Amino acid sequence: MTSAPPRPDAARPETSDPAYPRPDRDRSGRWASLDGTWDLDVPGGTVPVTVPFAWETAASGVGRTWLEHATYRRQVTVPAAWAGARAVLCFGAVHHRAVVRVDGVQVAEHVGGSTPFEVDLDGVLPPSGTGTLEVEVHAPADKRAIPHGKQRSIPRDDYDGVSFTPTSGIWQPVWLEARGRTYAARVAVRGDSLTGFDVSVDVAGDAPAGAVVTAEVTAGSGTAGSGAGERLDLVADGAGAASGRLEIAEPRLWSPADPHLYVLTVTTRSAGADRAAEPDAVAITGGLRRIDRRGEHLYLNDERIYLRGVLDQGYWPDSGLTAPDVDTLVADLEHARDLGYNLVRKHIKLEDPRWLHHADRTGMLVWAEPPAPSRFSPEAALAFEEQVAPMVERDGNHPSIVIWGLYNEEWGLDWDIPGSTDRADAAVRAYDTLRALDDTRPIVENSGWAHVRTDLVDWHYYDEDPAAWAANVAALADGTGEDFPVRLAADFLARKSLYGSADHPRTGLPVLNSEYGAGFTSLERAWHLRWQTQELRRHDRFAGYVYTELADVEHEMAGLLDVDRRPKDRGGLEPRDMNAETVLVVDLVPAHAGADLPVPGAELGLDVHVSHHGPGVVRGRVRAAWVPAGTPFGEAPVDGASDGGDLGAAGSSGVGSETVEAKPFVLSPAVRVTVPPPGPVSSARLHLWLLDDAGAVRARTFVDAGPIEEPNRRGERWA
């Protein structure tokens, strides 16, 4: 139980160049990065800037906050070897409005700080041609009416206390790539049939109408289900659109346990006189998997699944929303896996596609969501909705994405869905817009509360009181409670309901937590993680949870890791024990961090349940032993023996319960564990673990015993 969970034996198709920014849509055979040093015209002169880091960051070399306008400039050359092809200029993301010019001539304008865009340079720069590329950027300080997520605004957002340094300018990669004269501009693959891929292609370039499109499986891991050589032949219609089903004879499904990926090479040829020209080819990765809801449960590939998630905001201390390098970018997925999570909620940010590709390769599930504005107006709602189609086009092929989120906590809806028809309609319209584009994933229209049209009833709840937490969570689980306290600001405490209208169905949809956590110090946060997570696991109705959060961000110190991704002092807690498929649930309301209960002077009895979300039935006995206070499991023998201290015979007793049987997704009946007192000690830790019939440790937790004291509030009070 102390070792990290094993990595799945994943299919790992790689691009020919690992630095290529779109490994899931691979054209890395002919591309050129434009990242690096550019000139940046700012008020007062021209300075060097490193792309793709926001000009607010130290990594950019500029470090200017509240700069609202600047122009990037560099020379760009189309390689001579691209003769006969189209050169396309690609931008990952530029915040917020970008005007692109080549040699002073405008070739594109794009609005939207998180969505990609591209410029076909055919007729602008020929092969071997060199020109001056300029990107003029407008990034308003007042961001309240534009999608910006957690970037700070002036005037301030309603949620300024949880906002961070803005991200302006070019903050995702810029590159050139070569495409055929007639080429696949968009390729969507969906594997939710589980037997093959539904493929749709939009063709652009010289002769889209009647273009011949072939999708062929060219890679897959293993022998069974590789699909290599299976192909689909299509002809584009008059608008350049083609679609069909590519069946796989021996399908191998994608899952966290076996994240098998297929590579489909999509080749496009003109049907006209130039059909002898070099065809366009792009390699698309995809997976055969289906995520769906059945009543109040979630299923992946027809097997019930429980989501054990962590919130990830994707910020780094010197580079903001842009990771310093690709290895650092994808390492956060490995950190989440090491902590026991099977899902990452990427919070109100469209993350770099290389991060999503790594999630595909390694089997990490993803909850994806775009940034939102912070104040409501019809124009702000429209700007939010305009991100939805580019989001689905860019990221919809990733099998790792199993949930689409939209608004978060009524941000951009003025915290007032129940009181405003216009705001409720905006949430519904966003849901309908996304559903029309993708009907293969559950959608959450407003994460946290006040649901009006959603596939998942999710809730955000933070509470420092263990008794109140347990009671409110139980009420949400059994339906006797629908609302809970939410601190929207330091001086603003509201009660928020799960439902934004009286006619929203109260049953029949999966219910899950999507933000929780409490505590000021790292030890307090570990204590709340231990007890709050077990209360979520107590209730079989819930479909999962998302802990806040993976890593600290600036002034927000809620991470399991610090800003440099180093572990914090958790007082001997291993988060992966709390996030395992099988966990122990103790019938106890703890007193406070470091002292869940007083040191017992007599025999102690505890009732313990088993929550099991893996395959099959787990049978075993819960065992318990006292160890010195603060002792991690790795520093005490698993059979309960203690190596000394003042624990005496009680420390080596290793007492056990009667046999307990845990069925999947059903909390087991309680079994009683009775232990003698720990002896004359001021504090001690009771290790508890489930030893199955084969002698393997399947779950573990602990209970701390120490003095229960009222807070020291001596001294003069100031009025």
Write the layout of secondary structure elements.
Elements: E1 25-26, E2 31-33, E3 36-42, E4 45-51, E5 69-77, E6 86-91, E7 94-95, E8 97-102, E9 105-111, E10 117-120, E11 130-138, E12 169-170, E13 174-179, E14 182-190, E15 196-205, E16 212-220, E17 231-235, E18 241-247, E19 262-269, E20 280-286, E21 291-294, E22 297-300, E23 303-305, E24 307-312, H1 326-338, E25 343-346, H2 353-362, E26 365-368, H3 378-385, H4 388-395, E27 401-408, H5 421-437, E28 443-447, E29 457-460, H6 466-478, E30 483-489, E31 492-497, E32 511-515, H7 522-538, E33 544-547, H8 575-578, E34 582-586, E35 604-612, E36 618-628, E37 655-662, E38 671-675, E39 684-692, E40 697-705
Parallel strand pairs: 24-25, 24-33, 25-26, 26-27, 27-28, 29-32
Antiparallel strand pairs: 1-20, 2-13, 3-4, 3-5, 5-11, 6-10, 6-13, 7-12, 8-9, 8-11, 14-15, 15-18, 16-17, 16-19, 19-20, 21-22, 22-23, 30-31, 34-35, 35-38, 36-37, 36-39, 39-40
Describe this structure in words.
This protein is mostly beta strands and 719 residues long. 13% of the residues lie in helices and 34% in strands. It is built from eight helices and 40 strands. Helix 6 packs parallel to helix 7. The relative contact order is 0.09.
Tell me the number of strands.
40
End-to-end Cα distance, whole Å, is 51 Å
In terms of quaternary structure, the protein is single chain
Tell me, briefly, the overall form: globular
Rg calculated over all Cα atoms = 28 Å
Provide keyphrases for this structure.
mainly beta, 6-stranded parallel β-sheet, about 15% helix, 6-stranded antiparallel β-sheet, globular, about 725 residues, disordered N terminus, about 35% strand
